[in-house]
Amino acid sequence: MRKGLLLVLAASSLVLGTAHAQGARPDVFKGKLFPPNIILEHKAELNLSKEQFTSIRAAVVEVQSGVAEHEWDIAEAYQALMLELDKTPIDAERVLEYVDAALQAENQVKKKQVNMLIRLKNLLDAEQIRYLESVHPR
After folding, report:
1. What ranges do the domains of the chain cover?
2. Which of 50, 92, 96, 100 fits a 20 to 30 Å CA distance from 135?
3. DSSP designation for 86
4. Is pLDDT above 70 for 14?
5. Measuring CA to CA, which residue among 54, 82, 71 is closest to residue 110?
């Protein structure tokens, strides 16, 4: 069960870090919100209760299932976009509709992820938050 959770957390971290890895902009949440992999990396030092661990797992699983739905929408929009770009002439209005659909789905994914990060921080007590801030400063 813990191996499954770690896989979900790793996938979540990859999704959350995509913009940063692409060099788009720095992690604006660093030191303010903590991804689940960071929390679990410091599980022993944080002395997470079983209740906290269970709630963290539930939040991650919930966001991953919600993200999966939007990933299908994103893939579908980009697939249609690519087919449209193969045409001559290209229907710019139609392409932009597909771009808009993909961006809306991506925005929903990011909102779900930020909401999860907020939920995770709210599960921690003040001492746990201070610890994470000290090991992952802004």
Report:
1. 2-135
2. 50
3. T
4. no
5. 71
